[in-house]
Amino acid sequence: MTPSKLQGAADERKAGMDTRKLAYFVKIVDSGSITKAAAALHVAQPALSQQVSALETELKQRLLIRSKQGVQPTAAGHTLYRHAQTILRLVEQARQDVASSGAAPAGRVSIAIAPYSMASSLTPRIIGEVARRYPDIVLHLTEIYGGVLSEAIKNGRLDMALIYEPGPIRGVQFTTMIVEDLHLVVNGKGPLAVEAGESGDITLEQAARFGLFLPEQNHTLRQVIEAGMRDKGLSLRLVGEVESVPSLTRLLRADMGATILPKSAADALFHEEDFRVLRIVEPGLQCKIALCTPDHEPLSEAASAVLMVLKEMLQEMLSAKYAR
User: Taking 60 as the threshold, does the pLDDT of residue 2 lie above it?
Assistant: First the structure.
């Protein structure tokens, strides 16, 4: 072996764990089988097994449990898998950012928007404004709940989110945009409206007498409502857990129960005249809408551009609201 080749081999040994090994390991875990991973990667199975062995030797940990059914990561393997996903995503993002440096922002940006919030009504404006300013950015919009949000953002499946703020979560940061009072929403023409009375307000005790349709327990809105009632020694009368806005609208229109939402969400989702929106008082309940982003990694150029658009829209909406 020539001196230059010897030096190259030494440099490779010094470099230790490389991204190729990590990519192979992630594919094996995702496939649940070294054989399937080898076929997908077009790599010989013995060579793939050697890569795993090299990782285990380097880390001095067993990473995979092998059986007739395939492979499963050990506890150490799960830890490496999680970090490997982050490393590979950062490497790919670096390649994309360097390639597009100096050009207009481009690429795919994923946003989660909380259902049961006024943020969901902003979707057409968000898509329209991003398309106007940044035609090479493709937006991926989804509705998601706080319970799975932190993992989705930490693992890079989401770039950002507009959601009900759930409180501190490791790995993500929240920028509070709106603090709103909660309101009871009922069919304005049915028997439940008679129970609600003529005032524009309703006490929490009165609201607790209504059968309610709410999202499931991992939703921050549900947690705020339950905590408020618990503090007052009230019981929640849950009629059903509904996470579809069209279904919720149909249920309220049929006068089968009521729901509780922030005013902006109630106005956006139940703006027809046949619904009544009553502010909850004595005590009032409040929730926060926040922008959520990762706290440990910079956003891509495209995601940063979309984040700026979102902040501008929310600022305009707040200015219009409080200018009245």
Answer: no
Residue entry with tokens 């393997």: 77
Percent of the chain with pLDDT over 90: 35
Q: What is the CATH number of domain 3-98?
A: 1.10.10.10
Burial (CB count <10 Å: 0-12, 13-18, 19+), residue 192:
buried
CA distances from 186 to 117, 194, 258 (A): 17, 10, 5
- Residue 103 CA to residue 247 CA, distance in Å, equals 44
The Cα 158–Cα 294 span in angstroms is 9
> Looking at the whole model, is its pTM more than 0.70?
no
Burial 104-117 (b: 16+ CB within 10 A, else e): ebbbebbbbbbbbb
CA-to-CA separations, 121 to 33, 162, 176, 279, in angstroms, rounded: 44, 12, 18, 20
pLDDT digits (tens, 9 = 90+) for 217-265: 888 889 999 999 999 999 999 999 988 888 888 998 888 999 999 887 8
Tell the CATH superfamily of the 102-177+290-323 domain: Periplasmic binding protein-like II (3.40.190.10)
Place of tokens 């019981």: 235
Mean pLDDT value across residues 143-162: 74
Tell me whether strands 172-187 and 275-281 are parallel, antiparallel or unpaired.
antiparallel
| Exposed/middle/buried for residue 157 (C-beta within 10 Å: 0-12, 13-18, 19+) | middle
3-98 and 180-287: same fold?
Answer: no
Residue matched to tokens 């950012």: 97
More confident residue, 193 or 33: 33
Q: What is the CATH number of domain 180-287?
A: 3.40.190.10
Tokens of 94: 């670096």
Strand-strand pairing, 172-187 and 212-214 = unpaired
pLDDT tops 90 at residue 3: no
